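Rather than argue in generalities, we have chosen a single entry, letters for residues, whole numbers for local backbone shapes, without further comment.
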Amino acid sequence: MGYSTTASGSTSTAMGSFTNASAHGSTAMGSYTTASGNISTAMGYSTTASGSNSIAMGSNTTANGSASTAMGINTTANGPNSTAMGTRTSANSLNSSALGYSIIAKGYCSTVIGMYNDSILLVNQIGYENTTPLFIIGNGSGESFRSNAMVVLKTGFVGIGTNAPTENLVLNDPTNPTLELQNAGVAKGYYQLSGDNVRLGTYSSNNTGNLIVRLNGADRFTIFPTGNATLTGNLTQNSDAPILVLKLLIVAVVPDLYTMLILSVLYSDVAIKIELAEIPLHVIS
């Protein structure tokens, strides 16, 4: 039906112009479409459905895997049961899905969205491993600048800014990775790694917020915006040496004398001893 169409497969249908339905139960519609897989469907412009039970729709899309679906522009669904949607996306592994722009899905049962993702894997998986990336959000800026905003592995580990998380949640950033806490869209507090230091606190705009440590259902330790703090409970020194000894070296202008001064202060059941070591004192000219 149409112009220069071919339906050579049994119970096949070809419609439009330059369409070809060559397999059993196949359907080719539009212009320059090819349905070569059994019970496959190719629609649109220059689409190819070569996998059995596959569907290719849009422009220059290809559905090679059995029961695969390719939709959009220049998308390819190579894996069995795979889905590629958007522009220049490729779903290469079994049960994989690629959605967005220039997306590549290589992981078994993986779903990848966004743009210019790092596929992480070197080969297309046919089975899963603990390191299989089940979910990826790509945030790259070009073919040579592929990167990921977030990765979820088969283990359940989640990485933000890293492709290989080793804990339940890993936050990575080249400059001060920060977890921000908001209330109704307003930033109130944060947890931050600054160099080798870990910061936990409130923003300067939150000048009334306290930092509270809560244990066993009750507030135990509170730091106020002024820097003052309150502790509910006892503060106990747990060490083998309850006496803190500070040795001070003193130089004085006193000729030919020896001196020793020991000052002991008892405060809160902790003895603090300041010991001035016995030293010769010299006249400094």
User: Anything to note?
Assistant: The radius of gyration is 35 Å. Residues 1-77 form a domain with the Alkaline Protease, subunit P, domain 1 fold (CATH 2.150.10.10). The chain has four domains: 1-77, 97-170, 178-231, 244-281.
